Amino acid sequence: GSRGGGGGISLICAEMRPLFLLLPLLVLFSFSLGSDEIKDRVTEYLRDRIKTKSNDDCSTLPPSLWCTSDTLAKNCGYYDQCQKYSKASYNQPILITLLYESLCPGCQKFITEELYPKVLKNFGPEFVKIELVPYGNAKMSPEGEITCQHGEEECSINKFESCLIAALPDQNKHVPVIHCIEAQLKVKVDFNDAMQKCFETLQIGMTFRP
User: Fold this and answer.
1) Which helix (H) or strand (E) holds 171?
2) Positions of E strands within 24-182
3) DSSP of 13-60, one letter per residue?
4) Is residue 209 part of a domain?
5) How far is the C-alpha of 117 from the C-alpha of 128, rounded, in Å?
6) How many CB atoms lie within 10 A of CB 162?
7) Are 15 and 105 in contact (CB under 8 A)?
8) Which residues contact 20 (CB under 8 A, 6 or more apart)?
9) Is 99 helix (H, G, I), strand (E, B) or coil?
């Protein structure tokens, strides 16, 4: 069938709340709904979660949701801009942005059991664009020092995966590698061994150091 309007879905993957939007999102994907319907369902879910008094009151909704209905767009004063966005994004892949931590068990589970096998492999780049952000709950001090939730090793792996994404910008190249590495880390394989195995298995003709 034809695709509807493109849109974006952001997921924040953290230790205690890794799959905040996972269940409704995966249910929608599993039934192969059009992207407009996915956006509508996720929007409805978000509205329920933040307990808005009115679905058309822009003061109670973040700007990212203002284009989800014509009434809301008019009330917020962005109807013309939303119409332009709708036309520009029509029939485009859905953008899924995942903010994750490389050593977070919940994030590893989501990437290895849901995002890669059930979303990317099932729908492909024609329907889904995945943006991975290996930063998660990292904190930066006033001096510019970064501290990661799961320690220094996680910071090192996050940095490596960021460089990997920059070196292999095609999601069909870097997502499988990160999926492979996270699958190994999930079962407590040493990072260097995991990296070596994944590069050999996926035949990545590059040399990286963490």
Assistant:
1) helix 171-186
2) 94-100, 128-134, 139-140, 146-147
3) --SSSTTTTHHHHHHHHHTT--HHHHHHHHHHHHHHHTT-S-TT-GGG
4) no
5) 13
6) 15
7) yes
8) 11, 12
9) strand
Helix (H) or strand (E) holding 10: strand 8-12
Domain presence at residue 105: yes
CA distance 78 to 98: 27
Does residue 168 lie in a domain region? yes
Residue range(s) defining the domain that contains residue 22:
8-201
For 22-46, letters b (16+ CB in 10 Å) and e give beebbebbeeebebeebbbebbeeb
Check: CB of residue 69 under 8 Å from CB of residue 79.
no
Residue pLDDT tens, the chain, 210 long: 334 445 555 555 544 343 334 443 443 443 344 445 555 665 665 556 544 445 567 777 788 788 888 888 998 999 999 999 888 888 888 889 999 999 999 999 999 999 999 999 999 888 999 999 998 788 888 998 889 999 999 999 999 999 999 999 999 999 999 999 999 999 999 999 999 999 999 988 766 555
Contacts 24+ apart (CB under 8 A), 151-156: 151/103, 153/103, 153/191, 154/101, 154/102, 154/103, 156/191, 156/210
Question: For residue 184, what are its two tokens?
Answer: 């190994």
Residue 182 lies in a domain: yes
- Going by C-alpha positions, the residue among 79, 48, 47, 51 that lies closest to residue 65 is 47
Domain count along the chain: 1
